[in-house]
Amino acid sequence: ADSDRAEVRSDPVATSDGKPIEVAANVGQPAELEGATEQGADGIGLYRTEFLFLERESPPDEEEQYETYVEALDAFPEGRVVVRTLDVGGDKPIPYLELPEEENPFLGDRGIRRSLGVDADLFETQLRALLRAAADGAGDLAVMIPMVATVEEFESARETLDSVAADLDSEAVDYEIPEFGLMIETPSAAFMADEFAARAEFLSIGTNDLTQYVMAASRGNERVSELHDPQHPAVLRAIARTVDGAEGTDAWVGMCGEMAGDPELTELLVGLSLDELSMSAVTIPDVKANVSETDRESAEKLAKRTLQASTKRDVERLLDGDAEN
Ligand code: PEP
Ligand code: MG
């Protein structure tokens, strides 16, 4: 099957009519950086930082984090590296964190909720390390906040960033303010996308969680896997609403959920007007090839039809039909 794969392209790609689409890698640990480069990633669209905190007795200090972030930035001297702040909740055991058992951990104290609450110290340390790395690493850093549901949460996160910057200033430590944005992975954030786009440099749609919450179907539960599918028109409408919310602002809109890495969906995602797609490294060559073969006008027509579909089956039929043309 390897021979069916597209050639690796390390240059950025554009649609056949010339719109550049950034194709980036999702990375979950430093060992994956090399593979991302080898597959031709333009940068990192989602660096999950949970690995830094898992399987150890105490949290990583500022220095260890700083080095980890600089390493990632140095791997993409021409690109952008989107680092997501710690996204833990009651479903992952971390011995030194206070992780109470919750009845509904996916609806509980997770992501930014913890970072502004019980994990506030960890959040500050992580931001200090990130701001310092932004000044010293080769690539461009962007910092992304997970699980945001309210405008106040994002504003508080920005205030923390600003106060960390003020501290570094007063200590005469080198730092840079990175691009600052959030994941759109709660229905609330998708509905409020215009408010977020007015306050953030970017939005990145996390379709794994967004699908889970829009469809009320767990991401890991086989009994409801039919429902946990981003091709449901409800999820497509949430994506479209997010993109619409950012229209007319300077915020770019990406996607870093698994959906972004499905080569069969590239045309649809281009048609939905995403600026960036981030995925597991192995699918990058195929997605880059598909982007360069996509004509935006027909992609937008396809997207429009799927947004009018009544069911997932209708969406699938539209995508199949289009593949035959
Ligand atoms: C998502 O929710 O789509 C996402 C990219 O984040 P994670 O899979 O780490 O929850
Ligand atoms: Mg998520």
From TrEMBL:
Residues 6-295 form the PEP-utilising enzyme C-terminal domain. Its cofactor is Mg(2+). GO terms for molecular function: kinase activity; metal ion binding; phosphoenolpyruvate-protein phosphotransferase activity. Residues 1-18 are annotated as: Disordered. It catalyses: L-histidyl-[protein] + phosphoenolpyruvate = N(pros)-phospho-L-histidyl-[protein] + pyruvate. Keywords: Cytoplasm, Kinase, Magnesium, Metal-binding, Phosphotransferase system, Pyruvate, Sugar transport, Transferase, Transport. Residues 1-10 have a biased composition (Basic and acidic residues). Phosphoenolpyruvate binds at residues 48, 84, 208-209, 219. The active site is at 256 (proton donor). The keyword NAD does not apply. Mg(2+) binds at residues 185, 209. It is an enzyme of class 2 (transferase). Its EC number is 2.7.3.9. It comes from the Archaea. Belongs to the PEP-utilizing enzyme family. General (non sugar-specific) component of the phosphoenolpyruvate-dependent sugar phosphotransferase system (sugar PTS). This major carbohydrate active-transport system catalyzes the phosphorylation of incoming sugar substrates concomitantly with their translocation across the cell membrane. Enzyme I transfers the phosphoryl group from phosphoenolpyruvate (PEP) to the phosphoryl carrier protein (HPr). This is Phosphoenolpyruvate-protein phosphotransferase. It comes from Haloprofundus marisrubri. The lineage of its organism: Archaea, Methanobacteriati, Methanobacteriota, Stenosarchaea group, Halobacteria.
